[in-house]
Amino acid sequence: MRVGDADSRQLLWWGVAAVLVGTVLYVGYYFVGTFAFALFLYYGTRPFNERIEPIVGSPGRASLVTILAVTIPLAVVVGLLVSFAVGQLLALQITDVETILRFVSPTFDITSIPTTPQGLLDLLRTEAQATGSLQSAVSLVLGVIGTFADGLVNAFLTILFVYYLLKEDARIVAWFRGIVGAGSRADEYGKAVDRDLISVYYGTLLLVFVTAFIAAIVYNGMNLFAPDGLTVPLPMLLALVTGISMFVPIVITKLVYVPLTLYFAFLAYRNDPTLLWYPVVFLVVCFVVLDVVPNALGPILAGHGVHTGLMIFTYIIGPILFGWYGVFLGPLILVVTLEFLRLVLPSLARDEPLTGEPVAAGGRTPPLVEGSGPSGSTPTEPTTGDAPTDGEPSAGPARDGDGRIDEGAREFEDGEDGTTEEDGAAEEGVDGTTDDVSRETEDRTE
Questions:
Q1: What is the per-residue pLDDT for 130?
Q2: Are 278 and 230 in contact (CB under 8 A)?
Q3: 140, 146, 147, 148: CA torsion to nearest 10
């Protein structure tokens, strides 16, 4: 086959690869938020998964236990919140509704509110005939149902992503290193990104629990000094919700303590206006302890080794640019960019070959990141002859798809370079040892 034909076929395959990558990116664009959140949960729960796997004895069972340990507490919290809200609504009396409406809108005509199911139907029928808004009402209901179904689908995909990432991460790493080569620049880049992401995402999850712990202290402490009737209802449950609210961009803990403050102000205004000082004190304490302190702790807990100022900008700008999932996608973009600037750009700027160990801009070789792979495993070092040195082709023997030495290729090489039988025997001894190490590494990975 001529060289031109080989180049044409290789160019064709690169075109096919470009089409496939474009298709994957196009599909992934519509689920980027789901994938970003799943990646956050994966890195946030991976340390727990690594500790539970030796106990349960299987990556699949360990992944299942990890998923249940994360989703069940969250579902319990949401269920308790819904039950509490429904119970409070059922306990409301007509007089309480009237008091709330007068407080919110003094000019509202309370007598226009239907008090029976038949009155509600008559009101809806009258409004639909007068404004022709029946179709818009149906569209609104369908929109709500569609949003709810979309949320369920994304929740299912998130759990599925996390489960298979936890179960198959070792296989993914082995596949990647089989392509780029263990110890290559791409391998070091991937290990550095993995190390930073587990620091950032695990730190964020830790921040949620720290915030919930601080909120529990604040709510229970304020209840000790609160006037009668102005205590925080279900303080432990609301503390958990306060911690989870750290996932809400920009608003964060305000999602909980601001409605509580308004609730206390309403109760004080209705019962005893002289108690309006307490909602003000509650608001100030919550702002300082539950708003300022978590914002200061965030960059410290989430991102050891990543510049604190950059982390702050990421948590602010990410949600503005990308929406709700920006708090998860922003750190990913930051880490990938920073490690590229640290490990790859210096060699590109100096026109150096991207082989061998990475060299930082100051000329010092950054330390290798050991033990940062999935399940805490130390990456396998390249064996003699398997990885090329700077600017030199690989001199190792040919291997088949399972990593075993191709005997035919070795005989051809012996015949070409005139290697003696003694040299060949020595090479067989070395390569046999290498092959055993390779098979042992594969068994450990499996």
A1: 60
A2: yes
A3: 110
Residues 6+ apart with CB under 8 A from 43: 197, 198, 200, 201, 202
Asked whether the predicted pLDDT for residue 306 surpasses 90, the reply is no
Q: What is the pTM of this model?
A: 0.61
Model pLDDT, residue 81? 59
DSSP state of 276: G
The larger pLDDT score, comparing residue 85 to residue 275, is at 275
pLDDT tens figures, 210-257? 888 899 899 999 999 899 888 888 788 888 888 888 877 667 788 889
Interval 111-127 mean pLDDT: 66
- For residues 420 and 141, the model is more confident at 141
Contact in structure between 62 and 162 (CB atoms under 8 Å): no
The CA distance from 262 to 271, in Å, is 14
- The per-residue b/e assignment along 35-54, b for 16 or more CB within 10 angstroms, e otherwise, is bbbbbbbbbbbbebbbebbe
What phi and psi, each to the nearest 5 degrees, are found at residue 215? -65, -40
Sign of CA dihedral 403, 182, 35, 376: positive
Question: If you search the block for the tokens 């263990």, which residue do you land on?
Answer: 182
Opening angle at CA 406, ends 401 and 187, nearest 5: 45
> What letter would DSSP give residue 230?
-
The domain ranges of the chain are 33-108+143-349, 396-445
Give residue 145's identity as a one-letter amino acid code: I
Q: Residue 319 contacts by C-beta under 8 Å, 6 or more apart in sequence?
A: 249, 250, 326, 327, 330
State how far the alpha carbon of 238 is from the alpha carbons of 87, 205, 253, 286, in Å.
16, 18, 11, 13
Residue with tokens 């990890």, as numbered in its chain: 66
CB 342 within 8 A of CB 355: no
Tokens 């210096």 — which residue? Answer: 346
**Would you say residue 297 has pLDDT above 70?**
yes
Residue-averaged pLDDT of the chain: 73
Tell me what the mean pLDDT of segment 56-67 comes to. Answer: 88
H or E, element range at 210? helix 185-225
Q: In this predicted model, which residue has the larger pLDDT, 6 or 158?
A: 158
